[in-house]
């Protein structure tokens, strides 16, 4: 009777938990598809307030009735522009001016010196925000496609932004779908059950919906600035990490079903065994991600809490909703491989990993030395990793209209035409600043912005526009505005005009934004990486109640990270033919690889510590490796596969991040966690737990050490 009442109470509790979460899911679900509505993809919006480009942007607002972003419509014919081509460009220009969001009147088409191209500058009101994509689409519709040897492309900052918005619009659809399919396939392979895959996938979906509610509200009320990159990472992170946590809990649950008759009792034991490691793992990732709040870039500061919210939501769901689902599912959820109550040793089910454990025991020192040397050799590839700001033509993994147009502009015009650098200086020093700027290598021309015609060439006698005692100069660069050469010119230009006495010159513009973003990324990398390492070391020390083990784990993860970057540098350069990596890549790769990589060491070493307390350290290492090997490797494959889904977004920076996390996680689970860490811990023995009581255990590991 008492058993029946207990079973009934447990079932009622599980039903109540599941129903409660389903109500939450019904409320939160719609928000998962609305994140794109509150995303911002303008690079300038993420710059620090004290960046020179930000100050220039603030000053620019006073020189125009409405701030604008230019679209550059370029017509090109290799045999020379004809009269009909000119008429077409003029007619298109008239229609462009009538598009909602375009700020007229438009200047006349600008002919190239070689006579093979025409360019129309179309300023688009910044108030359009994300609707700039709609405006650019209308411009492209009006301009039409290539015809009779005349190519037509819409490029410039507005064209680039429109293409980015189109790419990120795929996050709510294709990226989410690909991620779901990848997780589903892996779960089917891992569990070989037509039923069990439903539980982790449903829980991961619930986690994503819950996270989306909080992220949406924070972005809507301007607490954070959400961009497409953070949105994409949130998607793969929640499904990847959520499935990882589910795999670990389900594996422990299956283990306990061999020992307990009732699923409720098995889940209670499994929860007690797995939840601390899962919670510690999640906390490590959350704290690491929140270190991004130390960033000077608003985009990085946004990614930190966005991803941390995703992990927090995932932890909450996986430790409440998933256990309730599994209790209701009972043993039949594992059909056809239903676990029976046979009280078998958990190690008996893991033949492959038992053999790997015995191999580690026989050759521990050789194993960890060999794997450490291999990883060290991979770090040599870092010499091929050139961190830079990717140019517009290098930003996309495919050839977009803005990329094609920028290439045409680069062939027929000074590279900076349509996207000049802007210089703001005091009126009395304007002439001197203009002269100094003109003498900087890489500057093609400098002109003053006039009150009569700010968009086109000024009249010879037009006076400069003066706002609060300042004037604006436009410096056209000889190189494309998104190139490394243009970035060097901006740095030299700033250095030159800053030396003019009492000029208080400020240099901004499209290229300046890229320069300041790159500088801020470098600063963030140098500040945040050491902080993350210290924070994770402290968390590990508290979890493992030791100092030696955390230091060893951190050292192995850092070595794995550097090896991953070295291997990825070779892949990017020689296999994918990418031009380099963005300046933000090393920091993002570090935060995700170290935070997620340490997860697997937490899962392993927390179980090793548990087993060491019963069996002794060396036997505990082998037991921990045996029972966690399969599930952790499966979890690593899931996470690697979900991050690989970022490749569906044709942006080089996201493809690189997805590849790096996938390669790094696989390297960490297969090499570092399966061989290097167990071999190190086995070779060191009880000292690995110093200074805890476990390091002074009287249990003799001599027999185990010799394979006895």
UniProtKB/TrEMBL annotation:
Domain SSD: 233-328, 554-682
PANTHER family reported in the protein's UniProt record: MEMBRANE PROTEIN MJ1562-RELATED, MEMBRANE PROTEIN YDGH-RELATED
Subcellular localization: Cell membrane
Keywords associated with the record: Cell membrane, Membrane, Transmembrane, Transmembrane helix
Protein name (database record): MMPL family transporter
Membrane topology qualifier: Multi-pass membrane protein
Family: Belongs to the resistance-nodulation-cell division (RND) (TC 2.A.6) family. MmpL subfamily.
Transmembrane domains' residue ranges: 12-32, 167-190, 197-219, 231-253, 274-295, 307-328, 366-387, 527-544, 551-575, 587-608, 620-641, 647-667
């Amino acid at each position: 009777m008492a058993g029946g009442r207990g079973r009934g109470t447990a079932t009622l509790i599980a039903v109540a938990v599941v129903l409660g979460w389903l109500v939450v899911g019904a409320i939160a679900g719609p928000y998962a598809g609305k994140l794109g509505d509150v995303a911002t993809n303008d690079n300038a919006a993420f710059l620090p307030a004290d960046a020179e480009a930000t100050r220039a942007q603030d000053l620019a607002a006073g020189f125009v009735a409405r701030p604008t972003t230019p679209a550059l419509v370029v017509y090109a014919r290799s045999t020379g522009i004809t009269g009909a081509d000119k008429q077409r460009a003029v007619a298109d220009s008239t229609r462009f001016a009538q598009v909602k969001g375009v700020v007229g009147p438009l200047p006349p088409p600008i002919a190239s010196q070689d006579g093979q191209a025409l360019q129309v500058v179309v300023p688009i009101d910044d108030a359009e925000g994300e609707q700039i994509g709609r405006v650019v689409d209308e411009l492209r519709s009006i301009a039409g496609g290539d015809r009779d040897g005349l190519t037509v492309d819409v490029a410039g900052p507005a064209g680039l932004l429109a293409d980015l918005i189109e790419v990120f619009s795929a996050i709510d659809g294709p990226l989410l779908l690909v991620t779901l399919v990848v997780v589903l396939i892996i779960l089917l392979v891992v569990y070989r059950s037509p039923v069990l895959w439903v539980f982790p996938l449903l829980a991961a979906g619930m986690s994503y919906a819950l996270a989306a509610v909080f992220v949406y509200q924070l972005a809507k009320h301007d607490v954070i600035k959400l961009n497409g990159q953070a949105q994409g990472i949130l998607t793969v992170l929640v499904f990847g990490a959520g499935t990882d946590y589910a795999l670990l809990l389900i594996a422990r649950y299956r283990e306990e079903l061999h020992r307990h008759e009732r699923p409720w009792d098995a889940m209670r034991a499994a929860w007690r065994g797995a939840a601390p490691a899962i919670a510690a793992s999640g906390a490590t990732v959350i704290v690491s991600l929140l270190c991004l709040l130390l960033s000077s870039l608003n985009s990085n500061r946004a990614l930190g809490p966005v991803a941390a919210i995703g992990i927090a939501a995932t932890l909450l769901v996986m430790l409440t909703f998933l256990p309730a689902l599994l209790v209701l599912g009972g043993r039949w959820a594992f059909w056809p491989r239903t676990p029976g109550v046979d009280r078998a040793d958990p190690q008996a089910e893991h033949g492959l990993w038992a053999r790997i454990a015995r191999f580690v025991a026989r050759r521990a020192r050789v194993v960890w030395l060999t794997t450490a040397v291999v990883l060290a050799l991979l770090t040599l590839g870092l010499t091929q990793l050139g961190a830079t700001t990717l140019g517009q033509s290098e930003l996309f993994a495919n050839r977009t209209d803005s990329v094609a147009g920028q290439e045409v502009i680069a062939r027929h015009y000074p590279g900076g035409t349509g996207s000049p650098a802007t210089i703001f200086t005091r009126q009395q020093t304007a002439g001197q600043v203009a002269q100094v700027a003109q003498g900087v290598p890489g500057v093609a021309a400098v002109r003053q912005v006039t009150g009569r015609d700010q968009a086109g060439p000024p009249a010879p006698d037009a006076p400069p526009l003066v706002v609060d005692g300042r004037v604006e100069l436009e410096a056209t660069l000889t190189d494309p505005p998104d190139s490394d050469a243009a970035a060097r010119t901006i740095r030299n230009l700033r250095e030159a005009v800053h030396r003019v006495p009492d000029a208080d010159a400020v240099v901004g513009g499209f290229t300046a934004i890229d320069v300041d973003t790159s500088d801020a990324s470098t600063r963030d990398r140098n500040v945040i990486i050491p902080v993350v390492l210290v924070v994770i070391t402290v968390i590990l020390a508290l979890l493992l109640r030791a100092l030696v083990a955390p230091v060893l784990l951190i050292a192995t993860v850092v070595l794995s990270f550097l090896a991953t970057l070295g291997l990825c540098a070779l892949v990017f350069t020689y296999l994918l033919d990418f031009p380099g990596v963005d300046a933000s890549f090393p920091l993002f790769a570090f935060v995700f690889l170290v935070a997620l990589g340490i997860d697997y060491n937490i899962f392993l070493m927390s179980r090793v510590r548990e087993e060491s307390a019963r069996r002794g350290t060396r036997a505990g290492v082998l037991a921990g490796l045996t029972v966690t090997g399969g599930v952790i490797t499966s979890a690593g494959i899931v996470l690697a596969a979900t991050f690989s889904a970022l490749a569906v977004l044709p942006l080089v920076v996201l493809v690189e991040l997805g590849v790096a996390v996938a390669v790094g996680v696989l390297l960490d689970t297969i090499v570092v966690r399966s061989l290097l860490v167990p071999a190190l811990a086995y070779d060191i023995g009880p000292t690995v737990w110093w200074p805890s009581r476990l390091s002074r255990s009287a249990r003799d590991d001599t027999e185990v050490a010799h394979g006895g």
